[in-house]
Every structure is written in C-alpha cells, then in structure tokens.
Amino acid sequence: MPINKINLIHPVKNAFALQTAKAFQEKGMLNKLFTTYFYSESLFLKLLRKAAPSIYLKINNELKRRDWQIDASYIISKPWIEYKRIFLLKTGWYKKLGQTSDQLNTKMYDDFDKIAATAEWGNVDAVYAYEDCALQSFIRAKKEGIYCLYDLPIVHYKTAKEILGREVELFPEFRPCLATVNEPQWKIEKKLKELALADLIFVPSNFVKQSITAIGIPDEKISINAFGAPVEYFKPLPKKDTLFRAIFVGGIGPRKGVHYLIQAWKELNLQDAELLLVGVDLFPQGWLSAHIGDTPSIRFVPSVPHHQLNEYYSSADVFVFPSLAEGLALVQLEALSCGLPVITTPNAGADTIIQDGYNGFMLPIRDIEALKNKIEYVYANPEILKEMKVHARDTAEQFTWNRYRNQVIQDILTYSKDK
Description:
Elements: E1 6-9, H1 15-26, E2 30-35, H2 43-51, H3 53-63, E3 75-77, H4 79-91, H5 93-96, H6 101-117, E4 126-130, H7 135-144, E5 147-151, H8 157-170, H9 185-197, E6 200-203, H10 206-213, E7 222-224, E8 244-249, H11 258-268, E9 273-278, H12 287-292, E10 298-301, H13 309-314, E11 318-321, H14 330-337, E12 342-344, E13 360-362, H15 368-380, H16 382-398, H17 401-418
Parallel strand pairs: 1-2, 1-4, 2-3, 4-5, 5-6, 6-7, 8-9, 8-11, 9-10, 11-12, 12-13
C-alpha cells in the first residue's frame, strides 16, 4: 500500500522532528502534526510588544524555541500537558510532590502518547512517532491497518543501561546523574513494545542500529539517517586570539564523559592552552567546581543562548566530545559547521561522519591516554590542524538537513513500494 499521507506525533519541537515535519510538508505528505505547545504570536504577545518591548523580547525568544516553521493549519496542539510540566518545573513544586525532572518528563510523554492516540486522525496511511510517545498510537494504527514509522534518536536503553551501569560501578557518586540506570520497568517494557510494533525504524547512527539488532530487531526494519549539520547559520568565524583552545559543548556530566576529558586535560598540562566547557553542569552538586577550581587552564561557561554558540565554537581549535552513550549528538555537527575537527567516540554516533586524521578522530570510551594523545597531536601540528579544519567544514556541507529530509522521504517511499 503506498504511503501518501502521514500523521507526525511529537510532544516538543526539536531539530530532527522539525526537519521531518518540513520534509512531509514539502512533499505534500503531512496530514497532521500532533504536539503540545507550538509558537505563534498571539494577541497577548502583540500587545506586550507595544506595551513592554523588553519583557516581550525575553518571553518571545523563549517561546520561539517551539516554532515548528510549518503552516499552523497542520498542527493539532495539546498545550496544557506542557504547561503543567513547565509550571511544576519552574516553581520547583515537582520536588514537593516527590518527583524528579526526569519523572516529570516521562509523565508528560506518557500523557501525550495517550491523548494523540485518541485524537481525530483523518484519512492517513501512516503515523510517524518517536520513542516514548508512540505506543498507544501504534496499537491503534495496527488495528486500522496503518503503517507504524518509528524514530529512535538515541541508543536503545539496554545498551545505555549496560554502559552507564558500568560507569556507576566506577563512580558510585554519579548514580543520581545517570537516569537511564534508574528507568522504571513499565517504561522499559513500553520501549520494547514500540519497537515490536514498528514497521520501519529510523535511527541516526550505526551505534543506535547495533543497540537494537542486539535485541533481535531485524536489519531490514532499520534505516540509518544521520542528522543534518546547520551549515546555514553555523559558520567558521575569525579566531580572535592565538591561544590553543579545545572546546566541549553540551550537558556537562558523566554521560558525556566530561570527567575523563578533565582528567586528560590536567595530565597534559599544555602551555598557552585552554579547555572551554560550555553547558549546564549535570554533575553532582560541587563536583565540577572541585575538579576544575585548581586548574586555571579550564574555563566553565554555563549554558548560553543557542545562537551565541557559533562564537564559542569559532574561538576554539578542536571540539572534544568523549561521550559514553548518545544517538548522534548534534553538537558534533554544529562544531563541524564551524570548521572544528571533532575528537569523539563511536558511542557519540558520528562513526559514519568522522574519519580519523581527516576531520577528527574516533576514540574508545573511557580512554584517557587516547584523549591525551589526540589533543596533543593537534596542538603540536598546527599545519595539519589547519587542513583538518577545512575538511571539517567540507564534511558539514555534505551532511545537511536537506539531505536528511530527502532521505526520510526516499526511505518511506521505498519501503511502501516494496510492500
């Protein structure tokens, strides 16, 4: 049966869900997009813009993060689910209710899954949904003879739990920071049911694919489609100083392997060099300051607006991302777009993008000596580093979001043609 019309189901806008929605709209395949809150300039915002421009700017900038950039007539919004989550999070009341932020997010996804599954769908051939918010829609789709298209953007929980469980054994103090280790059984069973019901599964990397073939998912159900690089708005900018600088951007915590990077950097003790960490501190309270406080060559910058990251990337010479468990971390593609070689691990998902010695290096997880070796190599070889920077941008221009959108459509059409 050909797939002509698709309902896309995702509670919050992110880069890859946005691009999938745009792909479906461009090809005339989007029937409805089900989400929670989506941005549109309401009458309230228009009045606020005139009455209090500075307040409007702050509120509007925050809300615009939910701009799906597609015609609003396609969007079915269930905002109260997200309003409740944000209210509890911002007020801190979720703590009084004995919940964590992860439990709050899980509840929102589960509520959204149930509501999207009971909504009016219209005449569609497929539903395209994401991990943790697909089960109820897939159950309904199977009853109605509709294809189930599943997007798994991060490594399967079993592989993640094995890797991060080992990390907790090595560093027991990190257990509260590694939510995957503490996943409730019902959530694990839900993920497995979603995979079992899916007709076609989209993953961003070999690492994610291997994590689900390991539990018996057949190769023919899986399509690898690497996320896109934002080459239109992340570009190389002139470096303003001559200091050698390695940069990490993202959640600064144990899942990203930042503790190994800090140790490697301290042991290197490079002259006229700086390690710049940009992002939210996700280590246990006090851990980060205790481990970098006595090292003047390590600088920590708390989370900054996304549009400012281009300046931070461009102030550096190499991007280092020793993550333990990802799908495909988008920061690697941002760094490549800014002309930065990437030192990373296969577990960060860029194994089909990074080529050793060409645009970066691929290292085993937890390997401090390998981190030291490659950082020191680019530090000591400025001419080679210069060439790698050019190759980094060239790579980004090959892995664009336009390529991603085209492949999503092609994979779906090929799948339905073969059925």
